[in-house]
Amino acid sequence: MSSLSNRPPPSIATTSTSASKRPAQSDDFPFPRLHSFPAFYTLQPTLLTRTAQLAKWSSLIQRYHAHHHLYRLHLSTALSTPLFHNVQMGKRVSRASLLELIDYMCKTEQDGRGGQRAEWIFSGGGRGRSSSSSEDKNEAWIWWKRPEEWAEVLAGWVDKTGQKGMVLTWYELLNGEAVKEEPWAGMDEEVLGRCLAVLVKKGKAQVFGEEGEKGVKFF
Asked: What's the pLDDT tens digit per position in 68-92?
């Protein structure tokens, strides 16, 4: 069995910018020791070891995206980032392995223990957990906070700041002076829409307006 299972590394704790932002190769993210183990970059054949490895990668991917306030993962560019390519060691995660990693993250804890921390974005705006062919899997949401978790954060802010009954534009919610220190500042607009949809379903918000002029009222 590989050193990955024989020498257990320190555990990785599960922990905004636009979707187009990409971290540079000189990355300020504090990578764990695990990231310097060559065996970590090749998915292991033993089921128990492989499952543990997938879980550690999932946690690392979430922490990395949270650190950089990223919401989307593009396979075409992700494989060249410091997250998946360790230049010093000359090790890189393969596309096939990354596909398996994201598929794992898409699954529920019941059917695969991924916790639905990712979601494929298919062409034409479609979304999916882990179905469809690999050729269609080029981009995915990385849910370091799922939409329902972000909805709770927003609802807490509304209560704390007395925003109930107030009307705010989406721009104010994402880029306003009042939210510049909030964790969702600069969030991807589509993610914000998913979060607000959760609050709308619960009767805690109403969304109105058209693209570019959207607003929301909280209850």
From this structure: 999 999 999 999 999 999 999 999 9
Q: What is the pLDDT of residues 32-59, one digit of tens each?
A: 999 999 999 999 999 999 999 999 999 9
* DSSP-assigned states of every residue in the chain: --HHHHSPPPPPPP----TT----SS--S---GGGG-GGGGS--SSHHHHHHHHHHHHHHHHHHHHHHT--EEEHHHHTTSTTTEETTTTEE--HHHHHHHHHHHHS-TTTTS-TT-EEEE-GGG-EESS-S-GGG-SEEEE-SS-HHHHHHHHHHHHHHHT-BT-EEEHHHHHH-GGGTTSTTTT--HHHHHHHHHHHHHTTSEEEES-TTS-EEEE-
pTM of the model: 0.82
